[in-house]
Design goal:
Keywords: ANK repeat. InterPro entries: Ankyrin-MYND_dom_contain_2, Ankyrin_rpt, Ankyrin_rpt-contain_sf. It holds the Pfam family Ank_2. This is Ankyrin repeat protein. The chain is mainly α and about 140 residues long. About 45% of the residues lie in helices and about 0% in strands. It contains seven helices and no strands. The chain has a single domain, classed as Serine Threonine Protein Phosphatase 5, Tetratricopeptide repeat.
């Protein structure tokens, strides 16, 4: 399957992004089974489906995308954000841990020189149930 180009989405991939926003995991699973859907497709901003799901705080969707081979370290976003950064911005520690467990790199900086930990601290992410996913 061909490499993704920013904004070059197939109809099924556009539908996948809508389904992610709606939180319909069953429909997302069906779409991910289509041969024309690239799990690491890029919207016009360079966001992957995993980035969308992480930012929207959709843990089940993130899990599904990772099971389908989503690249947790994709760094094509127009401002250099990664899925881990979007997880931090969502304020959802379970998604942050999921990204870390999937091998997310913690030392990547975005276009303004901030790491995922700094972005999470900016939005006031606090650990649920103890433990800190990273140090600032």
């Amino acid at each position: 399957m061909s490499a993704s180009v920013k904004g070059d989405l197939r109809d099924e991939e556009r539908e996948l992004l809508l389904v992610i926003a709606a939180g319909n995991v069953q429909e997302a699973s069906r779409l991910l089974g289509c041969k024309d859907v690239r799990v690491n497709c890029l919207d016009e901003y360079g966001m992957t489906p995993l980035m969308h799901a992480a930012y929207k705080g959709k843990a089940d969707m993130c899990r599904l995308l990772l099971q389908h081979g989503a690249d947790v370290n994709c760094n094509e976003h127009e401002h250099g954000y990664t899925a881990l950064m979007f997880a931090g911005l969502s304020g959802k520690t379970d998604i942050t841990w999921m990204m870390l467990d999937a091998g997310a790199e913690t030392d990547v900086v975005n276009s303004v020189g901030r790491t995922a930990a700094q972005m999470a601290a900016f939005v006031g992410m606090k650990p649920e149930g103890g433990g800190v996913p990273w140090s600032v």
